[in-house]
Amino acid sequence: MAFNALIMLIVMPVLNWIFEEALRSAGMVTLDIQTIRLGPSLVLTGVLLLVLMLVAAWVVAIQLALVTLALRQIQETGAIHLRALAAPLKDAWKRLWKPSSYALLAYLLILLPLLGAGLISVLELGIAIPPFITGELMKTPALALIIRALHLIALYVALRLSLAVAVFVRTSESGWDAMKTSWRLTAGWNWLIVLGGVLLIAVQMFAATVVGAALLLVPTALSDRFTPGASATVAGLTAGAGEVLVVFGAAAATALLVALLLVLTEKFAGTTVPDLATKTPERHRKTGWTLVGLSTVAAVVLGITWVPVMQAMNEHPTTLVTSHRGFVDGGVENTIEALEAAKAVGTDLVEMDVMQTKDGKFIVMHDPNLERLSGQDVNVKDLTQEEPTAMTVHDERGHEGAIPSLEEYVTKAQELDLPLLMEIKMGGLDSDDHVELFVAEMERLGALENNIYHTLDADSAKKLKAMRPGLTVGYIMPVAGEGAPETTADFIVIEEESASTDFQQDVSGTGLGFFVWTVNEMEPQREYLERHIDAMITDHPDWALASRETIGDERGMTGVLLDTLRSFVGK
Predict the structure, then answer these.
(1) Is residue 83 over pLDDT 90?
(2) Taking each helix axis from N to C terminus, what angle separates 282-313 and 231-269, rounded to the nearest 10 degrees?
(3) H or E stretch including 197?
(4) Which residues face 364 on adjacent strands?
(5) b or e along 42-73 (b: 16 or more beta carbons within 10 Å of the residue's beta carbon)?
(6) Confidence of residue 76 (pLDDT cuts 50, 70, 90)
(7) End-to-end CA distance of the chain
(8) pTM for this structure?
(9) pLDDT, tens digit (0-9, with 9 covering 90-100), for 463-480
(10) Taking the CA of residue 484 as centre, how many other CA atoms within 13 Å lie in the half-sphere pointing to its CB?
(11) What are phi and psi of 474, to 5 degrees?
């Protein structure tokens, strides 16, 4: 826990500074991969980002080495002696700088976190493959099977290498040699023993989390019942305590896991482990009470900052619920059937995709290639509008439909009195005048002013806003970080992995709207509703609409606090 605090206070600000410098060297104020241009500055940016990754990897490795050494020392002496840790920690630090240890660093900072199985460190938070990438790939059965197979292989490799840190710390082996030793020690059925131990710890931590959350909810529930006016304050202070307890829980999970791996390393290597000491020296009891005192102060300080947040979260959500490509539970994405299904569930907006065909006209389609939905390996840019609109598309739910032209789709939306969030999609013909042609078509249909627009292409967003300043135009960012981007758009559409509270505040502070896509789980939906983002794009608008009404009808802070505690655990 103390090391995590040190990372947050010192290491993370340094890494943030390196990250900011990397962005500045590429001429950016935020992480916007769509505006990166090739040039000499890109080399400097790459070097700075590489330095950032290496420093982060070294810190995580040292953190785990420190935990491993400390637990080993407790096993042998029943206490932690910092001076005795200095020499082996220094040796581990030196060996980590050698190229032979880089594979171990990659294992710790990349493979484990991407699997969701990383040892706990604040530097590993947020390391994941964005859902908008895996989500699209999983829609193709063959690719979904390959992804699942790769995930199982990666999990097997991770388990076989799980003893590498313990071996690295307790021997003079390089990182690469420690990984090879771990591979040898987990041969046969030993890797299944590791898996069983990890699952047992996961079950224990889950049970502790459920019990802890239930206990934390009690004061707020009582306040809701007897003193409703104080509930926001009680919930805020409880949320502060929850944050501190989550840090403790993460530290406990790390310690349990490292202890397990230490024991298994020695078991598989045929050595013995001294019995754990049962006596706790007086000095360490005093240290424990000091830690409790500091944690209490931290919980109170955090709780005070949470009180106004809780008050705001309890207000009725005003977030616009936006159906992603229509309502896909009722029809194939981007078809008339999905549009009608979205209307039936009462969605506020329908997000859809517009792509240009070979003859300069437009159809409603997301994929540049039609094989996933139609079974025909053809590209939109090679077809006239008449060709794809004559095709039948289908999805994994068993729905069928036709690819609509832009005119057909917009006309139906007008009949349904359903506003659209229209994405100008790249990957079709993309003629130099595609934005002008799109605007002309929408004006012909009498629908230009009645809908809003967004696009991944920065130039298209800029051109559309320049042509019609009165239109509401958004800029889509798959990955973002730091401050709000420089854009002429009216709102930012951000993928949910990057939609942090800090980024929301930065974007909203510049006067831009804040949209999040694609939020397909119920708990994150509630979190974004309570954060009062401007719009949420989802495949499950029915869930989001129900949650919006439920949150609005709730009386008291217990439900809001529960959602907050869930978000802590999710992070």
Answers:
(1) no
(2) 130
(3) helix 190-226
(4) 354
(5) eeebeebbeebbeebbbbbbebbbbbbbbbbb
(6) low
(7) 16
(8) 0.74
(9) 999 999 999 999 998 877
(10) 22
(11) -115, 155
